[in-house]
Amino acid sequence: MSNFSGGVISNDIEMTKDVVLSKIYHLIDKEPNELISSLKISGVKISDTASKRELIDKSIDALYSNKLFQREVSKHIAVTSPKFSNGSGDLMGKLSGLFGGGGDSEGGSGGGGSTTPQVTVGADPISAIAGAIGSIFSFASAKTNKNAQKDADKNKLIQSLLQDQEKKTNWLPIVIIGGVLLIGGAIAFVTLRGKNN
């Protein structure tokens, strides 16, 4: 969440988008049942045993066009926040100012022009984050070909999965083979040494 708020506060749309994609990746990799539940609540048809690839495809498609899914993702982002309140006005004000919702922003652009997405951000944290997510993904698709942007986001998540699989080398077979070779070598040494005496 701190990266999400950092992206919002610094008006860094790409950073904020990367945080959302990172949260989707986390859900795919560590909490797929939570993601499947969020997709179903959002009206997306998906199997309870969906593959990681199917989760990537459905999630990215829903991020670009499904407001209910954007809200579900915002709940996951808000839950990971140790401190998310409207008390200081800092993040909530930035969300409102950055995405054109008014509020007591300390410097959000308020929308306008073609460089900042516009959306009315709700007063509660979930609505504010959902509004930001909707704006970011609508803005990203407006700047480029929507399908090309979706494909780029899907590829980013697939690359993350592949990199993590490479990191998760299963050392157990290597240790077992090494142990067997060590024991076999010790037995051969004792046997050959016994024959030479």
List the helices and strands and how they pair.
Blueprint (H helix, E strand, L loop, with lengths): L1 H8 L3 H18 L1 H10 L10 H14 L1 H13 L10 H9 L26 H19 L2 H22 L4 H25 L1
Helix pairs in contact: 1-2, 2-3, 2-4, 2-8, 3-4, 4-8, 5-7, 7-8
Walk me through the structure.
This protein is an all-alpha fold and 197 residues long. It has two domains: 2-166, no CATH class; 171-196. It is built from nine helices and no strands. It has helices spanning 2-9, 13-30, 32-41, 52-65, 67-79, 90-98, 125-143, 146-167, 172-196. The radius of gyration is 24 Å and the shape is elongated. The relative contact order is 0.12.
Brief rundown of the structure:
The protein has helices at residues 2-9, 13-30, 32-41, 52-65, 67-79, 90-98, 125-143, 146-167, 172-196. It is an all-alpha fold and 197 residues long.
The percent range for helix content is: over 70%
Figure out the total of helices.
Answer: 9
Could you give the count of β-strands? 0
Shape: elongated
Biggest β-sheet strands, sense, barrel? none
Please indicate the count of domains: 2
- The arrangement of helices and strands along the chain is HHHHHHHHH
| Distance N to C terminus | 71 Å
Low-confidence stretches: 85-121
Radius of gyration: 24 Å
